[in-house]
## 1
Amino acid sequence: MTHIDELASLGTSTWLDDLSRERLTSGNLQEVIDNKSIVGVTTNPSIFAAAMSAGDAYDEQIAALREAGAAVDEAVYAMTVDDVRDACDIFLPIYEATDGRDGRVSIEVDPRISADHDATIAQARQLWKRVDRPNVMIKIPATSESIPAITDALAEGISVNVTLIFSVARYREVIAAYRTGVQRAAAAGHDVSQIRSVASFFVSRLDVEIDRRLEEIGSEEALALRGKVGIANARRAYAVFQEIGEKDLPEGAHVQRPLWASTGVKNPDYPATLYVTELAGPETVNTMPEPTIDAVLEQGGLHGDTLSGTAEEAQAVFEQLVAVGIDLDDVFEVLEREGVEKFVASWSELLDSMATQLQ
């Protein structure tokens, strides 16, 4: 029994936050499943930008797309959809063995349209149909403009990974969007037992931003809070999940699990497994870059359920943040905006690179 298996016994599914054509064609993805006990995959524009800029795994398909006169956007989506579809096929046995709980592969809508509801729901439908696998999840960012698109997608029976969540206030909106979506799906006659969703909370990015602000303040009280906020924020979210996550769901619907994302530590002074060992507990997912998975396998350090019953302690951290002068509303606004901007930048770089290769 590996430490990843131990994590699963606590209720946390481990997904790999990475995908590439090389992983698929070399058999590496299956090896990671077999040897490291991962049960799902998440992708994002940055992951695909990195995958397509390295090696020659995509060269044959790029040549065929060039010959066919494919537009740049279509070429990129043809390749990403193919990768996600193939990954879905690899994960299908896990999907079936877990009754759809795991074995999931996520693909994200174009981050450039995150402020456009109509474009977002249209692309969510398109990706759902193009991948055409029951275990795909469509990633939609939790911006205020995209929340209605999340509801609409779920109402049509589309499984959704709600991404780029930073604040508990926004998370409450995401829970409401999920509840309304599956209620509408049930009313429309969809089999809601086939709809799955996760709510992806970004953890390490919060510490990066708040640690910087705490260091600017420089007081002893402020510096003592470094490295504590990402975990406290996730624990506050988990308390909300326990309070209202299952309320008012139609018969047969599944709870929307919290997913901890951005769980590779950015500060080398912090333990590599920090955002795993301190966020383990029932009904959760942790999507990790492979180095973090390896660190968990090698180091372990798990010490039981570290989510349940932690709300009071987590709230105290936030009260201390306010006391030392941290403007939390501004922090969350900055992180959401920068989160979208970073994905837009990665996507734009990928499109520019693909335009050159298609010439």
Note: Residues 127 and 242 are 31 Å apart (CA to CA).
## 2
Amino acid sequence: MTPARRTWRAFRANGLGMGSAIVILIMIAIAIAAPLLAQFPSGYGIDILMPPSPQHPFGTDDLGRDVLAQVIWGTRISMIIGFAASVLAIIIGVALGVLAAYARRLDGAISMLVDVCLALPVLPLMILVAALVGPSVTTLVLVIALFSWPEVTRIVRSQALSVTRLPYVDAARTIGGSHIWIMTRHLLPAVAPIIVVSVVLTASRAVLSEAGLSFLGLGDPESWSWGKILFNAQRSGALTVAWWCTLFPSLAILLLVVSSTLVSIAYNDARNPKTREN
């Protein structure tokens, strides 16, 4: 049995991991099928601040808009921002991490840059940059990715360092393999499992960052996200009189973050031979 099949069999045996993966897949399906599931929430309605009912399962907000439709459309934007910011941060982090592990002359400079970035107050800087550039989906993706890659770089570098000392990497240098060929054919496959976990965790953190920025009024005003739902509830004063306006988007954020964490833990356990045997 191949290592990939052994990992999949161990992951499938983990109930929490499989359940969390199914939850994430359902959220992705909701994001894709949002136009088919609910009408885009816009304009005004006559049922203002109505509690959950058969007609409006998640209730309505201060303008009579259906909260369920907001959560469904918010799933699309939140997932897009989380995925796009995660991919961009992973590309930057993996490239710098592999380069730092292979090119030892650059290791000190890259490690110092990572330490400086990790020491910075991330949330205030994200707020400052987003406020200066202007609110939009593109701005949120770039700002979140800009402050998310250092953690990926540190993890990838530590994993790649152990690979650069292995005999087959020295053999690749001896036979005249180019630096790009060695990094792409030997180092990248070795850190691929770390990349998978980093994508999931970075995406969940990106969704949290987007929700925080949107809650502060720095989100895209022309689209819905879970953070914008919370921002509208806070701005209208519905936080104190309409609990449903904040409960359901908050549960969606919590569900995504917890599911992503459990999936990453289950995947790590599945690919670890010692844990897999137990």
Note: The longest helix spans residues 179-215.
## 3
Amino acid sequence: MTDAPLKSQYWSGFRQGLPFMLVVVPFGLLFGVVASESGFTPVQIMAFSSVVFAGASQFAALQLMVEDAPFLIVVATALAVNLRMAMYSASLAVWLGEAPLWKRALIAYVNVDQSYAVSVNRYEDRPQMSLAARIAFFFGAVTPICPVWVLATGVGIWVGDAIPEWMALDFAVPICFLAIIAPMMRTLAHMVAALVSIVLALALAGLPYNTGLLIAAIVAMIVGARVEVMSARRVPA
């Protein structure tokens, strides 16, 4: 089976990423509004969304900065929340690791939860895809996501309090992650890691500066990895 033309692969990825605009737009709007109300300047906010480029860790870091948390706590929390990107990179390396360095660097920069989810699912469903086809699909998937995130942040700064409360933009954060995570709960290790992270995050919610989140993330990854190893050992050779 031969690959479809690269343009077709790109637009296929674009169509896969397009539905995520429904959560990326309110997510970005919410960050723009919250950051603006927290006293950050428009330049600082746009730089935050353009350089850090990670919604969940941006919200976590923003909350801690507003609370005047120590610098190291802010950085550690943002890194812990975004640590999943290291795992995403390891997973994508299997499929995109032979790409030229500049392309890998660009992929690493624009890679987000949504682009990772749709791309890996496509690669696993169609392992015969060529490297060029995989890259085209990936960049197609991020096209309706990444620029829109930055644009939505800017609109959030601009409109500010004009957004009515009944719109409840904060719904976008949990729905976004549920939409990404739910289809990926394919193994026992995944489910155990998710359960451990939920239980610990709730149990340790009272710790200062969201350090409970750091502990929950680290323990969940260790437990998940351990379950993965034990499951692999049970598989007959």
Note: The chain has two domains: 7-162+172-184, 185-237.
